[in-house]
């Protein structure tokens, strides 16, 4: 799992050869902290098929506005730079894997 900001978003997310899961989060967000270890497990399972990128909401307001992030955690799934789906809130690992695998 990598951290990303507005200046790296184009290369790390939009230009990626593999699907990218973008996690919009913040330090003060309790559910975001619970989601992090779940995403690490998902990353281990899908390591060659999916890239996971974390974007700090407080430090990247323009990106949050561009993708209409209204609550966190919000997960964006992008394939070849195109937004495929959005998932808001905390989900168990099994549900996340089903969601990701159904879209990529």
- Please state the CA-atom Rg, rounded to the nearest Å: 12 Å
- Count of runs of 4 or more consecutive helical residues: 4
Binned strand content: 25-35%
Cα(first) to Cα(last) distance is: 18 Å
Write the element-wise H/E pattern from the N-terminal end onward: EHEHEHEEH
Number of strands: 5
Derived from helix and strand composition plus strand pairing, the structural class reads alpha/beta
- Principal-axes geometry comes out as globular
List the uncertain runs. Answer: none
User: What is the overall pLDDT average?
Assistant: 97
Strand order of the largest sheet: 1-3-2-4-5
* Percent of residues in helices: 40-55%
The biggest beta sheet is recorded as:
5 strands, mixed
Secondary structure topology:
Blueprint: E1 2-4, H1 6-14, E2 20-25, H2 30-45, E3 51-56, H3 61-66, E4 74-79, E5 82-88, H4 93-103
Parallel strand pairs: 1-3, 2-3
Antiparallel strand pairs: 2-4, 4-5
Task: Based on the model shown, name its key terms.
104 residues, alpha/beta, globular
How does this model look, in words?
With 104 residues, the protein is α/β, with parallel strands linked by helices. It is globular. It starts with a strand and ends with a helix. The model has no long low-confidence stretch (mean pLDDT 97).
Task: Write a brief caption for the model.
It contains four helices and five strands, in the order E-H-E-H-E-H-E-E-H. It has helices at residues 6-14, 30-45, 61-66, 93-103, and strands at residues 2-4, 20-25, 51-56, 74-79, 82-88.
